[in-house]
């Protein structure tokens, strides 16, 4: 079996953007605790949830409900790295070798508030779990965008990556993926999601995420750059001291500095914990400046020096100064000042945050080092202080993410037939890629309009690979697996036999095509109490040979009749029983291209007549005998395709929640 290449896998993950609203009855749902936290210990057994004493009871749960069934394997850390005094989440991992769901692993975190702001934290501790003592490197993706590179250089070192991100509306979830680069097997130890207040980190918005800089400093325990300046003995502060569970680590010992502390509460307006700010660093031995540097080369995630950094400095005066004393300093970045950065005076027991953007040079091969300097002014009698700081890289999201909507938009929007065809063709290309270009092939298993993402230019991509199944034997015609998918789109043959093939995706795509044509949902209401499946509704309408009776009236009749007929025929063929009678996605792409050509010719005025009557087309394409036979068992079919009429397309079938 030829393994899936890293390039192919990266392309697939880039399609997996967090932007579509899924049904609520998914195994990933109902995992928030009372604080709104999701706390996952990756690799523990399904019944091994526990309360973490170090965080005063944050409950960590297994990861099985957040990844597709069968994706990845669990392992424990090997001696001597399995120190029982470590946080429990570092004692196990889930890893994703070839043949266990593909050489990537994706977690779906939900339910989220669309447009809400969140902190996402991922933790990695190799600990020689595989006994090979080979240090891997792999990429970390957040919502389809590359977030970081995890570059393990020591078996006993923990690597923690944090990001602040806005959940793109109308999504109610985010996906975090570890992606193979051919440099070792991806793995993960822990994954946390924390809701943030909307006013926090305003630099994170629908177009930008913030990735906490990962750069190890000599005296710091972890690589992430969020620091406090307490003396030795107080290494970390997190929940409950920080109600958002941000981790503040001690900067470490610098013999050119001293510490100023207080037991008095610092007014912080709730964003930064008072306890974090009750200690500050100051120059020792009558020094007059503090310098702190960082570099792009210190973070393997920085693939370009054209990087924008967000620097957040936190100040609060901790000493009540007599009238003849003055603490005043300039704040410089790379020896440059800006408006308001000179002559800064911290306020007594009142915290202020000073933020600034720092731009890289853009030179790809040049190491970029940046320095923030706090320099006492000539009038100052006291040295500068610094209570805490954070450094983030600002990551711009693609237009595809920032303007994204889900494919249900065309069900409720007056799009033209040409636009709808283009959406259908783009989506078909995506499924064809999964089925034919990937080695081994991938079956999506949850094709539906909500999993088709649209850019501002109505470019369509397939998303949500949470149920994707890998064919470990690329020459097999099917694989036996527990049925999973969304009712209304779920292939009845797959549901009844548990035999999954690429034709199951074809069936689901046929339902999508019918929605594109008609503007109707999978469950079409026929009265106040009853709904029928969209395929049955279309067949009944087409029995009169009138395509206008099914075409979405919001298109205003502006379409080539033959083009619409051709897609209707194709959609119904995609739902044929048995599945071997259905076209492949390659066939679907070819048919949609022909339909698009017909529509383009019609729009340009070059296609003013048809060579075949509509009645002939309908008679050729729609087998009403078969339709009648299938409709005779409509109620049984409705149980499979719809579940309970009205909300059926929101219901998912899948592994039992754990």
UniProtKB/TrEMBL annotation:
Domain of life, per lineage: Eukaryota
Protein's recorded name: Protein kinase domain-containing protein
Subcellular location as annotated: Membrane
Entry keyword annotation includes Membrane: no
Keywords: Kinase, Phosphoprotein, Receptor, Serine/threonine-protein kinase, Signal, Transferase
Membrane topology: Single-pass membrane protein
SUPFAM superfamilies assigned: Protein kinase-like (PK-like)
């Amino acid at each position: 079996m030829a393994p899936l290449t890293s390039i192919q896998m990266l392309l697939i993950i880039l399609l997996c953007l967090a932007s579509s609203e899924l049904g609520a009855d998914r195994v990933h749902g109902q995992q928030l605790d009372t604080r709104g936290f999701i706390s996952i210990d990756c690799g523990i057994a399904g019944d091994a949830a526990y309360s973490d004493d170090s965080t005063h009871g944050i409950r960590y749960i297994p990861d099985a409900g957040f990844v597709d069934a069968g994706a990845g394997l669990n392992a424990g850390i090997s001696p001597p790295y399995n120190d029982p005094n470590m946080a429990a989440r570092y004692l196990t991992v889930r890893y994703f070798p070839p043949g266990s769901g593909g050489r990537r692993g994706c977690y779906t975190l939900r339910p989220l508030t669309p447009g809400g702001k969140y902190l996402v934290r991922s933790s990695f501790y190799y600990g020689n779990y595989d006994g090979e003592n080979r240090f891997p490197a792999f990429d970390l993706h957040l919502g389809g965008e590359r977030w970081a590179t995890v570059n393990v250089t020591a078996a006993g070192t923990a690597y923690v990556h944090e990001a602040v991100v806005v959940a793109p509306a109308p999504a109610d979830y985010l996906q975090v993926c570890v992606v193979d680069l051919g440099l070792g097997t991806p793995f993960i130890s822990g994954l946390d999601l924390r809701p943030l207040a909307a006013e926090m980190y305003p630099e994170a918005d629908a177009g930008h995420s913030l990735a906490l800089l990962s750069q190890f400093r000599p005296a710091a325990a972890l690589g992430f750059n969020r620091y406090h300046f307490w003396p030795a003995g107080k290494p970390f502060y997190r929940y409950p001291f920080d109600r958002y569970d941000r981790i503040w680590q001690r900067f470490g010992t610098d013999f050119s500095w001293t510490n100023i502390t207080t037991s008095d509460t610092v007014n912080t307006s709730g964003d930064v914990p008072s306890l974090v700010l009750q200690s500050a660093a100051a120059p020792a031995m009558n020094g007059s400046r503090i310098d702190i540097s960082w570099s792009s080369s210190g973070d393997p995630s920085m693939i370009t020096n054209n990087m924008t950094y967000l620097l957040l400095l936190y100040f609060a005066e901790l000493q009540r100064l007599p009238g003849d004393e003055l603490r005043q300093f300039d704040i410089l970045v790379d020896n440059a000042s800006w408006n308001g950065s000179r002559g800064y005076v911290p306020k007594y027991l009142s915290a202020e945050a000073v933020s600034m953007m720092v731009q890289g040079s853009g030179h790809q091969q040049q190491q970029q080092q940046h320095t923030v300097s706090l320099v006492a002014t000539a009038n100052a009698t006291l040295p500068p202080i610094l209570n805490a700081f954070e450094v983030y890289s600002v990551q711009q999201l693609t237009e595809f993410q920032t303007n994204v909507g889900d494919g249900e938009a065309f069900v409720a929007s007056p799009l033209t037939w040409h636009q709808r065809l283009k959406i259908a063709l783009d989506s078909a290309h995506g499924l064809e890629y999964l089925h034919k270009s990937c080695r081994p092939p991938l079956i999506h298993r949850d094709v539906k309009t909500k999993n088709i993402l649209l850019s501002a230019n109505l470019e369509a991509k397939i998303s949500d690979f949470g149920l994707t199944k890998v064919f470990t034997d690329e020459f097999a015609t099917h694989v036996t697996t527990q049925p999973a998918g969304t009712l209304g789109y779920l292939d009845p043959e797959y549901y009844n036999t548990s035999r999954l093939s690429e034709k199951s995706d074809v069936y689901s795509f046929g339902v999508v095509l019918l929605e594109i044509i008609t503007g109707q949902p999978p469950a079409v209401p026929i009265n106040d109490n009853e709904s029928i499946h969209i395929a049955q509704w279309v067949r009944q309408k087409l029995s009169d040979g009138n395509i206008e009776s099914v075409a979405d009236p919001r298109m205003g009749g502006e379409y080539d009749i033959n083009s619409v007929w051709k897609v209707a025929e194709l959609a119904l063929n995609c739902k044929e029983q048995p599945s071997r009678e259905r076209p492949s996605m390659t066939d679907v792409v070819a048919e949609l291209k022909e339909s698009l050509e017909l529509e383009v010719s019609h729009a340009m005025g070059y296609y003013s007549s048809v060579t075949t009557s509509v009645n002939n087309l309908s008679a050729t394409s729609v087998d009403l005998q078969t339709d009648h036979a299938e409709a005779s068992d409509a109620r049984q079919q409705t149980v499979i395709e719809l579940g309970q009429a009205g909300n059926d397309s929101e219901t998912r079938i899948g592994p039992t929640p754990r």
